[in-house]
Structures are given as structure tokens and as C-alpha cells.
């Protein structure tokens, strides 16, 4: 007795039946899921089985096949010709598919296997291992599939018209030590897509093979691995192009040995219908739908007793359906774990949501390249044909990855651009991220299918399964198209947004950095919590918790996309005007305390606003109100100069003047006078003295037209500094005195404070220390009454300089410490350098030249970073520094100076403030007795 491929005994065939000998092709068939079909149909199964037998026997009667036996739903047939066997299988499958069965659920799905080998019939039976090989090939097939061995493939010519054999590779059949190359019969009328063959060497995973190296993410791999060991469902959430899939595949690749029943990758993005999510997972696991039974039940039953890991990728494509299947799998058995990637979480019980961060742009260990730069270097080397980037490009490469917020997809696209551009050229073009990275690529709007999918010109289709209605559903393999451009990646998520969330995303594009909830409320003049939550859940906005509250940040590539959508929606003017209004409000708030009363200005409160102010200024200079732009620039008046950005401030003002000329927007004379006065101060700080005088004169003319005495006093008070910068010291002193007297007579004395400072400096320079001290003493209450200026403590600084001139170290120390502490505490860094230099002089005069040299070095380093000049005391600092060098000698001075140069301005201030008071020094008058 032989046994068929299900293990049943094969009855001996009558010796009177002619059996082929020599090269014989054996065919085995049976109905997949016959037990389940019989249970479902009950008495209706027998007619289906009989009709199945009739169709197969009719096919066999028209071929040269000899039926050896039929038992239950199985056939065992021998052919003398391999081509005839293949033709019989094709005809039989077509007949089964074309037949009108009682219902779609009752349609029998027949699997067939062929093998050709030498065999001799003895006493009506074949005692040959080739029979068993054919049986195992049939057992490896799925319902509706025809598999054959390589031997059958060799002898099957000619194939039926339009038919071909698809090579499925080598497989080890159960009970055989060697590997058999299997082929699938492909022809019109036959299904093409099937799970992998059911063979003994079924792979323990189907993770995609990566063609590029994996860079960085060491901390993330460790953190995510720990999370997976503690939770059965972990969802990696992040924006499109953040590297979720790549990280998940890399991590699970190292876990294959941990799961005896395999690690299985399913790309949910290829599923076009929610009802087919379970079908897609089942197909990957080698499962076929059972008649009359939901495929999810088949899936849960299969997984219940197994220990395996499912990697479900891009679940946001079918979020609800994927969540339902995951929930069923996790509750159906304890051995299944799920790692999912998505742009938003499932919100399932027990789900651990892990948000993938961008690649780090901070320097690596030992000062090496950051992870983001390392990825860019790796991909750039490949795009340039193996030629490595020049070390001179390192700074520009860092600029590129910083501008791209460490987003891996953007970095990959940038590397492709570096094939034709230098790093510096690319960095300069990244103000338009989409234009720089997407230019020349397919327009995603041309390939968008309208249902959340992308259609490519060379699209691979996958027939996942038959639906209950018997219709084939095609899924598109769209991952490549989704990530072909930044715009395609973001559109994938944008299309899923409701109207409120989409509008919020567009309007948030006007901000250049993180915003808090109050700011979002200001922008929309509405409660933004619901749409904001949607954007965070979909990873289009990054929520970053802090002790003071949560801020919300949009990655630059997403912002660039949202900005384009803002223009397309016709909302740009309204949104950007609203942003300008917020920027003016934020500047105003920086000058006020909790009680809405003016407080001493701290430039530190303006530092976080700088990028927002620039974004607002850009709009006012190109499409908005230039008048609002002048107010914005004026709110940053001192900030520009104290941060070494006087030149930038001047450039913004020039652009705004051009906007005024272009639009003819009326600007009040008082506001023009204030802008020209600020421009004059910027020009003086930038060493452009002719420009300084020109705008000082324009400011005076506008102020006189405005008829505002206080404004005119403030403008004229700056004229003395302009004359000093031009070397006209006598005229400067005369103008300062005249302005001070006129302002006092006009009851606007506090507006002439700048003239007081300039006069005190002039008196100090010519040694009139008593006069300088008297002028400054009278100015102290004026300074205290001006919150915008009192943080500089210029009166104390100048009194300290007067004390140094008198060699009164105690008074100098007292005044200079007060000035420095206030300047560094309120963010006046440029002026803090003057105070640090003054304390260096005090140290030198007090017998501590080493500390003096350090402080001089620190002040110069900060000035260099700020690109600012030593100012009006520069000659004095140089003279005192030369004296310290002479006292120490070149070597010792240079060492101490270099040590100071390594300090930040805050550290330098700490060093200066730590200098002991002269009263504490040995020999102090306090201890003379």
C-alpha cells in the first residue's frame, strides 16, 4: 500500500489498468480546508464534492492521465507526458473557477502538485520515492495553486498558450534531505499571488533586506528593546520619514532567535481596504481563508499557541482595522507580541507608545560627527560614487542636518542633492526645503489616488485574497512613492486630517519655532485643544513637555509643506498678519511684569523670540505692513546691538524702507524718527559712521516734524555719540551739554540720558573726573526711571571708570560689580564685556595680573563671537592690557589670556564677580591698625 500526501493509505489499483512506466509525472490534488467546508455546508457538502470530482474526471478523461485512486476530496493521477499533466492542471483549475457553485463560500479551492521521475508499476502500484515527492509538493501548495518540481518543469514543454512557470526558489520538502526547486504555474484565469509554500524550511522571518547601512540610533535601539521586553504591544510613532520602519526592522532582525515561531513583517500600507488587514497578516503567515469563517478567527486560532513577533508597518494607513486585529490577536493568546509603526497611536489598552526622535544633531562622543551628520556623510559618499566629503564641508553639513531637524528622509534626499551641489550651496538653498530637496522629482499631486494611496508609474500589485463576495482586491505597494519626496510623505498624513486640524497645521506654519498652548490660542482665537491633539497624535506636531508646560514644535520639512498649503488655501495674509500681531504682543509682554507694569528689560526674554521676530519681519518686508515691521525692529532695538547683530538690524530697516516706498504706506513722522534714530545707533555700533550721521540727521528732521519734545531730546542725545565716533570731541561735548540743558528746560530730562553718558565719557577721557562724577550722580534717578535702560547700569559702570582713574580700587570694585552683575543678569553681553575689562584693570591695579589677563582674554573672545568692536574705551583697554603683558611676560600672559578665551561670557562674569573685595586684601586700610 502507498499513502497519499495526507497520510491515508492508497488502495492498490487493478492490474488490468494500464499504468505508465519509465518517465512518469504524478499529480496529487485535494481541497484546501475541506474539513471546515464540510462542517459549514453540512448536507450541502456532498453535492459540492461530487461536482468537484466530476469536473476533475472530465478533465482527466480528455488527457492521458490515469486515475490511480480517489478518496474523499483527493485525487492521485499518473501521466506519461509532463506537458499533458500541466495542461490537465490548468484546465481543471479553470473549470473549477468558472463553475457556478451554490455560493461563493462553497467554492472548493483545490491545490495541485506535480513531479516527474523514473517509476515502474508493479502489481498495480508504484513503489517509488518519486510518488512521495509529488505528494509533498502538493502538500506545499495552497488552494487554487499548481506547484511542480524542476523535473516536471524541464519536461513540460511546450506549455499551454500564455502559460508560464514562476520560479519560487529552493525548498526542503518534509521527509527529504535535499532541496527541491519549486515552480508555480501562471496563466490567465489562475490566481497568481499566494503565501510562501508550506515546506519544512519555511523561513523564521520575512524581514525586508536592507540595501544601505544602518547609522546611529544606539540609544533608541536600547530604549525600544527594553520597552518591547516589558510590553506585548509597542507602537513606534513619528512623522513620515522619521525612520520608524528602518529602526523597527533593524531591531527585530536581532530578535529572530528569540521567537521560535518567527518574526513576521506586514506592510499595512499595501492594504487598500480595511477588511483586508487580517488577510494581509494571514498571507504573510502562510494562512488561507477558510470557507464560511472570518479570516481573523483563523488568524487568532493559529497564533494562539505560538510564540511569535509581528512587525506591522505603517498602520496609520488602516488604523482602526489594524487596531481591531491587534486587539484580537493579543487577547487570543499570550505568545504573540506586536511591534507597530504608525504616525499615530492605536489608543489600545496595554499599548506602549514610543515616539521616535529625530536623529541627534549634537556632536558625537569624542567630538565626532553627530548621528545626523554621520548618516548624511554615509549617503553622500554613496551618491558621489564612493568619494568622501571634504573635511572642510563639516560645518556646512552640520548646517544642513540642523536645518532639516535631523529627519532621516530629508537627510537621504539631501545626500542625493549633494551629488550636484556642495554642502555650502545646499545649506544656502534650504530656506525653501521642498524646493531644495523635491525639485526634479515626481509631483505627488500627479500620482495621488485620492484614497490615501499613491500610484506609481511602475506599480506592483498584490492580490491578497478573495473577499467574501469572491472579488479580487488589489493592494498597491506604495512605500517608495510615499517617501519619494518630502511633499508626498507629508501629504500622506495631511489627507487624513479634518478641517480644523488641517487649518491649525497650516496656520502654525507661520511660526518658526516651538509655541505654547497660549500662543496657539492667540493665533486661532479659539480653543485649539482638539485639533492640536489630532496633530500630535498623527506626529505632525511634536509635543515637548517641560517643567513650565508643554510646547509644540513642527519639524521644518513639515512646516515648509504646511506653508505651501497655507498659500494654496488663500489664508497666508490672514495667518501671517495674525503672527505679526502676536509678535508685537510678545515684545510688549517682555517689557511688562505679571502686574502689566513696566519692568527692567532683560534681553534674555527676547532671545527665545528672535526667530519668530525674523519670520514676522520677513512678512512685513515682503507682503505685510512695513509700519508693523518698524515696530517689531524697534522692540529689538538694544538686542540687535548687544548680540552683535547691528548689521542685521540695519538690513531689516533698509528692507522696510523699500517696502514703504513700494506700497506708499503712510508712516507717522514720530515712528520714522524712532526708526532712523535706532538705525543711527546700529550704524555706529557697526562702524559705519557716515551712515550713523546721515540717519541721525533724518531722525532729527522727522522728530521736529512730529513735534514731540521727548522724542527730539532722545534723538539729539544720540548726536553726541555720533560726533564722538567721527572724532569731533569738542563739538560732541558742546552738543551734549546743550541737549541736557534743553531737555531739562523742556521737562524731558530723562530722555536725554544718552547725552549724559556721552558727556561723562568725554570728561573721563580728558581727566575731568570730578566733573564726570558730578554729572553721573545727577543722572542716577533718571536712569532708575527708565526700565528699558536701567538694566545696563551705565551710571555705575562710568562711576567705576572714574574710580579707576582715581586709583580708588574700593569704589571702583563696588561700582563695577554692581554694573557687571546687572548687565550679565539682564543679558547685555556686549556691555558686560566692558565691565569685565574694567574689573580686569581693577585686578591689575590691585596686584593680580594673572586674573587680569584671563579677564581680558575672556572679554575679547566674547567680542569676537559677537563680532563687536572694543568701543570708545578700546584704546584704554589696549593700554592697560599691554601693561599687564609687560608685568607678566609674554609666555605667562599668553597662557592666562588663552585660559580666559576658553570661557563663556557667563563664566567670565562669574570669574570677575569672584574677585575679592579690596577691603579683604592684605594691607587694606580697614586692617591697617
From TrEMBL:
Occurrences of domain Guanylate cyclase (ranges): 25-138
Any one Gene Ontology BP term: intracellular signal transduction
Coiled-coil segments: none
Pfam annotation, one family: Guanylate_cyc
Annotated GO MF terms: adenylate cyclase activity
Protein name: Guanylate cyclase domain-containing protein
Originating species: Phytohabitans rumicis
Amino acid at each position: 500500500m502507498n499513502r497519499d500526501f495526507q497520510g491515508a493509505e492508497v488502495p492498490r489499483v487493478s492490474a488490468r489498468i494500464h499504468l505508465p512506466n519509465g518517465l512518469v509525472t504524478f499529480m496529487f490534488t485535494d481541497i484546501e480546508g475541506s474539513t471546515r467546508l464540510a462542517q459549514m455546508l453540512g448536507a450541502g457538502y456532498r453535492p459540492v464534492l461530487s461536482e468537484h470530482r466530476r469536473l476533475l474526471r472530465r478533465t482527466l478523461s480528455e488527457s492521458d492521465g490515469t486515475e490511480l485512486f480517489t478518496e474523499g476530496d483527493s485525487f492521485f493521477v499518473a501521466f506519461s507526458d509532463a506537458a499533458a499533466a500541466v495542461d490537465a492542471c490548468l484546465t481543471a483549475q479553470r473549470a473549477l473557477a468558472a463553475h457556478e457553485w451554490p455560493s461563493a463560500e462553497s467554492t472548493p479551492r483545490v491545490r495541485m502538485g506535480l513531479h516527474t521521475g523514473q517509476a515502474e508499476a508493479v502489481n498495480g502500484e508504484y513503489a517509488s520515492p518519486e510518488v512521495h515527492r509529488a505528494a509533498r509538493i502538493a502538500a506545499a501548495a495552497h488552494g487554487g495553486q499548481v506547484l511542480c518540481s524542476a523535473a516536471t518543469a524541464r519536461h513540460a514543454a511546450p506549455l499551454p498558450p500564455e502559460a508560464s512557470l514562476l520560479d519560487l526558489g529552493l525548498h526542503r520538502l518534509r521527509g527529504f534531505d535535499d532541496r527541491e526547486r519549486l515552480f508555480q504555474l501562471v496563466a490567465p484565469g489562475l490566481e497568481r499571488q499566494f503565501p510562501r509554500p508550506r515546506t519544512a524550511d519555511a523561513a523564521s522571518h520575512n524581514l525586508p533586506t536592507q540595501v544601505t547601512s544602518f547609522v546611529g540610533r544606539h540609544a533608541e535601539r536600547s530604549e525600544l528593546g527594553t520597552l518591547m521586553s516589558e510590553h506585548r504591544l509597542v507602537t513606534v510613532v513619528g512623522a513620515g520619514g522619521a525612520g520608524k520602519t528602518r529602526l523597527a526592522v533593524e531591531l527585530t532582525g536581532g530578535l529572530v532567535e528569540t521567537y521560535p515561531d518567527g518574526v513576521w513583517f506586514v506592510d499595512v500600507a499595501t492594504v487598500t481596504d480595511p477588511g483586508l488587514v487580517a488577510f494581509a497578516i494571514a498571507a504573510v503567515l502562510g494562512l488561507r481563508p477558510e470557507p464560511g469563517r472570518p479570516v481573523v478567527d483563523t488568524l487568532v486560532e493559529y497564533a494562539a499557541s505560538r510564540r511569535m513577533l509581528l512587525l506591522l508597518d505603517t498602520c496609520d494607513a488602516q488604523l482602526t482595522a489594524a487596531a481591531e486585529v491587534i486587539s484580537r490577536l493579543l487577547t487570543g493568546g499570550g505568545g504573540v507580541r506586536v511591534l507597530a509603526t504608525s504616525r499615530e497611536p492605536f489608543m489600545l489598552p496595554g499599548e506602549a507608545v514610543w515616539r521616535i526622535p529625530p536623529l541627534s544633531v549634537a556632536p558625537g562622543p569624542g567630538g565626532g560627527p553627530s548621528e545626523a551628520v554621520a548618516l548624511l556623510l554615509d549617503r553622500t559618499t554613496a551618491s558621489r560614487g564612493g568619494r568622501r566629503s571634504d573635511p572642510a564641508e563639516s560645518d556646512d553639513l552640520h548646517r544642513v542636518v540642523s536645518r532639516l531637524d535631523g529627519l532621516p528622509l530629508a537627510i537621504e534626499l539631501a545626500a542625493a542633492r549633494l551629488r550636484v551641489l556642495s554642502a555650502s550651496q545646499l545649506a544656502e538653498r534650504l530656506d525653501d526645503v521642498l524646493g531644495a530637496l523635491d525639485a526634479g522629482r515626481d509631483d505627488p499631486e500627479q500620482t495621488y489616488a485620492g484614497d490615501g494611496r499613491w500610484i506609481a508609474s511602475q506599480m506592483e500589485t498584490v492580490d491578497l485574497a478573495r473577499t467574501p463576495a469572491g472579488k479580487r482586491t488589489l493592494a498597491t505597494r506604495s512605500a517608495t512613492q510615499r517617501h519619494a519626496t518630502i511633499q508626498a510623505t507629508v501629504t500622506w498624513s495631511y489627507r487624513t486630517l479634518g478641517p480644523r486640524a488641517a487649518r491649525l497645521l497650516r496656520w502654525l506654519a507661520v511660526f518658526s519655532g516651538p509655541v505654547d498652548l497660549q500662543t496657539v490660542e492667540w493665533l486661532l482665537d479659539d480653543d485649539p485643544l482638539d485639533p492640536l491633539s489630532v496633530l500630535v497624535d498623527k506626529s505632525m506636531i511634536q509635543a515637548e513637555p517641560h517643567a513650565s508646560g508643554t510646547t509644540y514644535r513642527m519639524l521644518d520639512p513639515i512646516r515648509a509643506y504646511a506653508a505651501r498649503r497655507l498659500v494654496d488655501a488663500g489664508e497666508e495674509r490672514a495667518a501671517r498678519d495674525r503672527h505679526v500681531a502676536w509678535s508685537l504682543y510678545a515684545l510688549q509682554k517682555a517689557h511688562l511684569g505679571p502686574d502689566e507694569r513696566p519692568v527692567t528689560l532683560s534681553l534674555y526674554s527676547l532671545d527665545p523670540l528672535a526667530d519668530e521676530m525674523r519670520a514676522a519681519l520677513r512678512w512685513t518686508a515682503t507682503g505685510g505692513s512695513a509700519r508693523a515691521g518698524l515696530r517689531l525692529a524697534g522692540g529689538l532695538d538694544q538686542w540687535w546691538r548687544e548680540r552683535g547683530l547691528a548689521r542685521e538690524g540695519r538690513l531689516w530697516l533698509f528692507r522696510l524702507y523699500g517696502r514703504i516706498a513700494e506700497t506708499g504706506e503712510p508712516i507717522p513722522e514720530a515712528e520714522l524718527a524712532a526708526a532712523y534714530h535706532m538705525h543711527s545707533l546700529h550704524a555706529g555700533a557697526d562702524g559705519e559712521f557716515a551712515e550713523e550721521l546721515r540717519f541721525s540727521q533724518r531722525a532729527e528732521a522727522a522728530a521736529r516734524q512730529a513735534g514731540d519734545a521727548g522724542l527730539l531730546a532722545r534723538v539729539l542725545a544720540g548726536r553726541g555719540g555720533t560726533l564722538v565716533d567721527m572724532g569731533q570731541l569738542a563739538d560732541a561735548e558742546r552738543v551734549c551739554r546743550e541737549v541736557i540743558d534743553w531737555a531739562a528746560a523742556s521737562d524731558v530730562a530723562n530722555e536725554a540720558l544718552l547725552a549724559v553718558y556721552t558727556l561723562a565719557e568725554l570728561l573721563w577721557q580728558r581727566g575731568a573726573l570730578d566733573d564726570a562724577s558730578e554729572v553721573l550722580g545727577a543722572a542716577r534717578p533718571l536712569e532708575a526711571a527708565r526700565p528699558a535702560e536701567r538694566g545696563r547700569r551705565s551710571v555705575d559702570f562710568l562711576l567705576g571708570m572714574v574710580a579707576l582713574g582715581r586709583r580708588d580700587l574700593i569704589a571702583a570694585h563696588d561700582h563695577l560689580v554692581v554694573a557687571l552683575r546687572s548687565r550679565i543678569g539682564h543679558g547685555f553681553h556686549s556691555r558686560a564685556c566692558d565691565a569685565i575689562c574694567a574689573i580686569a584693570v581693577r585686578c591689575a591695579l590691585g596686584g593680580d595680573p594673572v586674573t587680569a589677563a584671563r579677564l581680558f582674554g575672556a572679554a575679547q573672545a566674547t567680542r569676537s563671537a559677537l563680532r563687536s568692536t572694543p568701543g570708545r574705551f578700546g584704546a584704554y583697554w589696549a593700554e592697560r592690557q599691554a601693561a599687564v603683558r609687560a608685568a607678566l611676560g609674554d609666555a605667562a600672559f599668553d597662557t592666562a589670556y588663552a585660559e580666559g578665551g576658553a570661557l563663556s561670557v557667563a563664566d567670565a562674569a562669574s570669574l570677575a564677580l569672584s574677585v575679592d573685595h579690596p577691603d579683604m586684601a592684605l594691607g587694606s586700610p580697614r586692617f591697617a591698625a
